[in-house]
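agent> fetching stored inputs for the zinc ion docking request
agent> found them:
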Amino acid sequence: MKVRLRNPDRVVDVSGPATVLDLLKELSIVPEAVLVIRDATLLTRDERLNETDEIEVRPVLSGGAS
Amino acid sequence: MKCKVCKGPAVMDIRRHNAAFCKPHFLDHFRNQVARTIKEFSMFTSDDRLLVAVSGGKDSLAVWDVLIDLGYDATGFYLDLGIGGYSTRSKEAAIAYADAKGAKLIVRSLAEEHGYTVPELAKLTRRVPCSGCGLNKRYEFNRAALEEGFDILVTGHNLDDEVATLFGNVLHWNVDMLGRQAPVLEEKVVGGATALVRKVKPLVRLAERETAAYALLTGIDYVIEECPMVEGNTQHRYKEAVALLEESSPGTKNHMYFGFLNRVRHRFGDEDENFELVPCAGCGAPAARWDAAAEPVCSFCKTKRLALGRKQQ
Ligand code: SF4
Ligand SMILES: [Zn+2]
Ligand SMILES: [Zn+2]
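agent> prediction call returned; pasting tokens
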């Protein structure tokens, strides 16, 4: 499946992961730090994925002084 | 996962509440949490005029959106920091949101107001960009609120922001900062006039992941890219460390922050006894007077003088 990552913007090909949690494990991403998006909606971590999916993994933690 | 309320398919899980929600019930949950926070900390009422500091990012646009939907009188304020394409795109996001929502937005620019951008200021003062940027934002938000007659300044600080700040203040034992960390900072009167407007953070019960989800699900087109100056930023590293802890024990952030507010904060005074607050000789903002013989100048004016002095050389 095609997975879009941000900051910097890039697309990687990942094959195999059955669920959102598996995908994040494979990419070494902490689930608490991202949203996982398919077809403009959010996926919970147990959601099943298909090889033909286009997924976006969007980081949510920003930095900077307040 | 199933929605806790309607048992339909969930789009968002919140592990520290042991809950998942479908889109409409997540949005309800989010608004309820904001309304509860406003009430719990007596932040403001519908009679108050609110100025919302808007960066174009998810948190400030989300808080503005919820306040408008809850029926509050909330105006946005965008400060152009002059950080290249990042600032251009954030300004566009703030303006596009205001136009779509029919909300009022005040726009000012650091270069026009004071003669420098954040990158220039960092070079001139030889300090990290976030330090001068934070100082200038706090100063300009407050000045705009006072000048435009607002009662309250609202910021989009979320639970992760507050926990990261607390984590940093504990790591370094910044005792005076610990005394000042709260969801409400009361107005400060200096020399008979309001010098610091009351500041509130209605998103402190919401994790950053939830504010991002709120923005995405309501179709708010926020700026996803990070500020290019943020590289190596310690606040960001603290958030990553805390996210790891939260992942292995959900609820850690909540415990740390609300435990601090309820059980620890009162041990730290919110005033430093060693100085007196007096109006700054340059601008009238509150300045700390340590020494009765010296002219009181606020930290903003000191930094501005240093920067503009070096710029002329
Ligand atoms: S990351 Fe630093 S320089 Fe950039 S906007 Fe935030 S505080 Fe300012
Ligand atoms: Zn539901
Ligand atoms: Zn001053």
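agent> quick read of the result: The two ends of chain A are 38 Å apart (CA to CA).
agent> awaiting further instructions
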